[in-house]
Amino acid sequence: MLITPMGCAAQNTNAAQQNAAPMTMNKTSAPAVAALAATAFLPDAEMKERKANLSKSERRRIVKDGDKALKIEPTSVMEKKILPPSGDKHDYMSVGPYWWPDPKKADGLPWVRKDGKVNPATRSTDVTDYPSLKDVSKAVEKLSEAYYYTGDEKYADHAAKLLKLWFLNPDTRMNPNLNYGQAVPGANDGRPFGIIETVNWNDMVQRVPLLDGSASWTGADKKALQNWFADYVNWLQTSKIGKEEGNTKNNHASWYDVQVSTFALFADKPEIAREVLQKAGKRRIATQIEPDGSQPHELGRTKSWSYSTMNLRALFELAAIAESQGIDLWHYQTKDGRSLKVALDYLAPYADSSKAWPHEQIAALDRGNLKPLLSEGVRVYGDKRYETWLEMLSKDGDK
User: Fold this and answer.
1) Sign of torsion over alpha carbons 281, 276, 265, 69
2) What value does the mean pLDDT take over residues 288-307?
3) Considering the domain boundaries, does residue 123 fall inside one?
4) How many domains are contained in the chain?
5) Confidence (pLDDT) at 31
6) Residues 115, 362: Cα–Cα separation, whole Å
7) Model-level pTM?
8) Do residues 77 and 130 make contact, with C-beta atoms less than 8 angstroms apart?
């Protein structure tokens, strides 16, 4: 998510690895929050130190990204050209990306699945809110950083406009639900799988606190957005679709937990986040990772490398969020050896471009997906092999 905090020390793994439940860390002596953890979870003093020590090249990058984000026009769920089944345009809509018209049917219905192959029609803003959600989220993220590090109000002003139009303005706000996410034409109006699309909000809400103090983003605005996300967390945890997504067995379940805990913390509901994080070892790590480190739910996909690294990224983010709350998932380990570290050890050797990935991967294999995972491996576990594999990625240009 962000730059690695300075002064992070590796944790001792000896006794901790024997635990089959998440450890509670002493917040006064816990290491700095992980590289994958959120800005909102970093201590104020550390953020101020980071700002004071920002390099010129990093500042140029932040300004460049902020200037690019200024070009993103404010938009909302009201822009799509079709009505959701509810008849309310305020409801978010999207179509399952891997679904296509059935060539054997005159009307193409119901659509059929082609795993890993995105149907371009499912990304049209005429029928889906997803591209706009993604653009707004990324823009707010970059604008918030630019405002914090430069103090230039233009960045905060534009971020506030984007946030208010999408979430707060009564005429344009999105309803806090995903009842109609990733629908399949001819089959259903929406599916639990659509919830993964709001993963794009994770980094956004973690940057929004950087707008504090801006004339364009008031305390009332912040509270209103927190209330919106509190309502969304409630929907995630109580609706039929939300509960079904939480009970899935693959990367969707991992990202569901990341979202619930991130949004709950942003909404000032830490008790909800802690409950999710305390259960994550048994519910996610123990059920998704084999003793040899493989992730069978992801290996069964047509893009097995992409999904294996994606799911481990979600589990690492979950561990980083847990770390910020004094809960240690990094060293959670079952009696038969299932853990985050063993999952990383399974994937890490493929940083070597001469080593072929033995599972199906219909898209290009991006070994660079390992970089953030290996970087965390160095920080958390102090394993020198991860440094070697990172060097291989750098030499190979992350290919």
Assistant:
1) positive
2) 98
3) yes
4) 1
5) 34
6) 10
7) 0.90
8) no
